[in-house]
Amino acid sequence: MSEFTVSRRQVLASAVAAGAVVATGSPAAAHDTAEPFPLGVASGDPTAHSVILWTRLARDLYAPGGLSRRTVEVGWEVATDERFRRVVRRGTTLARPELAHSVHVDAGGLEPGREYFYRFKALGEVSPVGRTRTAPEPWADPRSLRFAIANCQDFQNGYWPAYDALSNEDLDLVVHLGDYIYEYDPSSRFPDRRHVAPETPGLDQLRTLSDYRNRHAQYKTDPALRAAHAAFPWVVTWDDHETENNYAALVDELDSGAAHQTAAQFAKQRAAAYQAYYEHMPIRANLRPGSPDLRIFRRFDFGRLLRLNMLDTRQYRTDQPGTADFGPVEAGLGNTSGTLTGRDQERWLTSGLIGSPARWNVVAQQVMMSRTLLPNPALVPPTMANLDQWDGYAPQRERLLGVLADHRVANPVVLAGDIHSTWFSELHRDFDRLDVPPVAVEFVSTSISSDFPAAFDAPVKAANPLLNPHVKYFDGLKRGYLRCTVDRHGWRTDVRTVDSIETRRSPVRTQASYAVAAGTSRIVAA
């Protein structure tokens, strides 16, 4: 297994298999692949001396066994050059059928702050080559860090030219904030983007481990997504659609068309969703198959420049207040026992913020933290709030912002996704007292392809100066990602958008750029 040789036949076989998937995107096209790496390779969760290397073996993506019922030995290599003339680490691992023949190699003994290349070998074939990078030493003082923020990639809603653009960026890292897959039944205006059917059509919902595995596998047949994974290490967290829209802990969707499940029934569904997520992500986590619990909140230090706190605001949250996703602001203000993180995660976050030695302290999570008042079409009351966001859990938001202010946490930055639109905001302990300096800034990334109703864009832009003056930038029309460049003196965020998701290829543009000077928590046009 120590010899990795790639023949012309193997390269051509891989190209033919990828081309078949690209041509139709249908289960039939991806049904039988010529090589065992049709889902590509990925890396993630980098530390100063290690990184997770991922792949999943498959011959038949949508067969119950995926490959076979036997365990397969997989070789892996890490090198400092992409031709693998200078291999620094190698080994073997096992791809087990009970984990869909996925592998997670925690490749250690690496040098800090360095670029590496990696690949796998199994069943006589060699995988595509991936590129990754370790983090700087915790006490190091790196000159800068450059990363992208992505989220919300509804396969059925369009193509992903944003990932083509992202894979060509000069980045250290990609941060994915959730909604990696969507759970809905097949329905798309693009014939080659229809979801593979679940075991029980009509629920508009995935339920079984096979359902979730097939959906993750289908998403990874997209060549742009595979390229983005192969180009950089990713740090990922989930939101709701990886399991079920707007679920909270063991409470399924509030307005689900299907009958509500008991907590025990939903725990079984959540266990399937969490296992499939783990099987398809380059994540460092301790999975217990069959368990509805999987801790994925974790922390990464990039020298003394930036601390990245990755949260999970779905698994531990209390149910949304009220009886609908949108409701009166007072419902969130009065939710004194409500939590998005659970008590243990909140304590973990608070401790990591107060004790941080970093110049910039990032809270990366799923839903918008900024108070966001929206005009009520019914007029009474005149405004409403999205209670699935932090507006539904206002007392906890007040506690967190209080920690940032009272302990003078250095340069706090909140990252979010979920809402399929771009929002840049200054965060205040009291959003009605804008004369008091903000305590943090927030950057909310638009979606890769998920829809934001175009009809809402103009009304929100018109309402923000009056209802949300702390919002410094908003756009709901464009899909894409954020590109962030951070150094000791400042933070710059570029809004990178594509012209269209109607085609696989579309130009990418920098639609806007905003900056934050260290020590200010003020967002200004760059």
Concise account of the structure shown:
By secondary structure, the protein is an alpha+beta fold.
Give the second-level CATH assignment, the architecture of the domain at 135-180 and 219-240 and 292-525: 4-Layer Sandwich
Question: What's the N-to-C terminus distance?
Answer: 51 Å
Q: Note the total helix count.
A: 10
Question: Mean pLDDT, rounded to whole units?
Answer: 92
The CATH superfamily of the domain at 135-180 and 219-240 and 292-525 is identified as Alkaline phosphatase D (PhoD)
Radius of gyration: 22 Å
The largest beta-sheet arranges its strands as: 5-2-1-11-10-9-22-23-24-25
- CATH topology of the domain at 135-180 and 219-240 and 292-525: the name is Purple Acid Phosphatase, chain A, domain 2
Secondary structure tally: strands: 25
* Uncertain runs: 5-32
Class derived from helix and strand content: alpha+beta
Strand percentage lies at 25-35%
Shape: globular
CATH class term of the domain at 135-180 and 219-240 and 292-525: Alpha Beta
Helix content: 10-25%
Largest sheet: 10 strands, mixed
Which features characterize this protein?
526 residues, alpha+beta, Purple Acid Phosphatase, chain A, domain 2, 10-stranded mixed beta sheet, 7-stranded mixed beta sheet, 10 helices, 26% strand, globular, Phospholipid_Metab_Enz, Alkaline phosphatase D, PhoD-like_sf
